[in-house]
Amino acid sequence: SSIVAIVGRPNVGKSTFFNRLIQRRDAIVDSVSGVTRDRNYGKSEWNGREFSVIDTGGYVKGSEDIFESEIRRQVELAIDESDVIVFVVDVEEGINPMDEEVAKLLRKETKPVFLAVNKVDSGNRMDDTYEFYNLGLGEIFPIAGMSGSGTGDLLDAVVAALPEEIEQTEEEELPRFAVVGRPNAGKSSFINALIGEDRYIVTDIAGTTRDAIDTRFNQFGFDFNLVDTAGIRRKAKVKEDLEFYSVMRSIRAIEHSDVCILMVDATRGFEGQDQNIFWLAEKNRKGVVILVNKWDLIDKETMTAVQFENKIREEIAPFTDVPIIFTSTVTKQRLLKALEVAVKVFENRKQRIPTSKFNETMLPIIESTPPPAIKGKYIKIKYCMQLPTPTPQFVFFANLPQYIKDPYKRFVENKLREIYDFEGVPIDIFFRQK
Ligand code: GDP
């Protein structure tokens, strides 16, 4: 989906606006899993159009003495990684030198920019908004992030400026793999080991509305598109990058992929940022393969693959049906195996189970272990099917679907995964009224 980036200096109200857009749905997910994550990415929808939102300010929030270079970086990143930019300023403070700095960077760009003048809570602030025309970014949108007033008009404009979604002809699509992970996990080494000196790159496929991001790979019997992360193109810059930026850079690649190859540095373990990237892939319903890289450096006496694997599965619960492969780009251990598994995950994600077969396998299980009765009422599931959606979704029709709770849903998912191979693939299960 398309990406909208929110930029602006600290304390202008970027995160209030961001939270309004994503309606805190993500925050709820976080509290359940008990994992603290940077709240700077989420999905939103307006006028029936879905898009992703990145709050690029998440990282520098709260610091007043933010360096100019930091702001510059934030804006450059937003320009690189998004389709539309919302620049938030604060009517109470008027134009700040840093706003001018940001405006200068944005004026040079061809991407659509919308200037949101925030904290316009009452009519009499309206007069103060006009000075922002001096930033030279065209129309201004007075908003009050807190109450939401004015945000509708802004979003109408934002959504109208999003690029057309390119429909993919599903049948002939090649797998799209994104190699993601923290800085230094070994992503570039992995890609270099595969493509050598650019010898096996067949074509660059240019998107119609954005830069070329796909690189065709065809070698060793594999044929797929490698979804470029900004990191591959701007390697020099990535090296010094902070974690936050590396996660942000992953977002675009993840969104454009079918399967994410998540590289983890074995010498550092599976940590918060690895989890964040994993969560991004899962949230976007992408296939996932985890590579535990630099396995050559691990003393197998103190840490075995099984121990390492168990630790990762603990961290990624409840979605644990994910392949974990131990690799080394130095000894070239299991690099092709990793591709093979990624292709399998791609196929798993595309599979369609015929309805009759699905009913034949699932209904007897449900009959022998039905959802617990509620207030003496029996819950009956008589029919089920896979939906014709791009990612696997299953619906079970019941007389009282509202009484079916999460533990039962997990039970059904586990059984489904035992019977069918959805390894590496997030799936959705719904219970609906018959
Ligand atoms: P990226 O930031 O994820 O692209 O990581 P790089 O591919 O640049 O690798 C970071 C560092 O780790 C480099 O010094 C690599 O030589 C080293 N490295 C990458 N993969 C391996 C591996 O499998 N084993 C060992 N020993 N070193 C590795």
Automatic annotation (TrEMBL):
Chain residues that bind GTP 1: 8-15, 55-59, 118-121
Record-listed GTP 2 binding positions: 181-188, 228-232, 293-296
Record-level Gene Ontology MF annotations: GTP binding; ribosome binding
Keywords: GTP-binding, Nucleotide-binding, Repeat, Ribosome biogenesis
Domain EngA-type G: 2-166, 175-350
SUPFAM superfamilies linked: P-loop containing nucleoside triphosphate hydrolases
Transmembrane segments: none
Swiss-Prot/TrEMBL GO biological process terms: ribosome biogenesis
A Pfam family this chain is assigned to: KH_dom-like
Function recorded in the entry: GTPase that plays an essential role in the late steps of ribosome biogenesis.
Membership in a protein family: Belongs to the TRAFAC class TrmE-Era-EngA-EngB-Septin-like GTPase superfamily. EngA (Der) GTPase family.
Subunit annotation: Associates with the 50S ribosomal subunit.
Protein name in UniProt: GTPase Der
Organism per entry: Myroides indicus
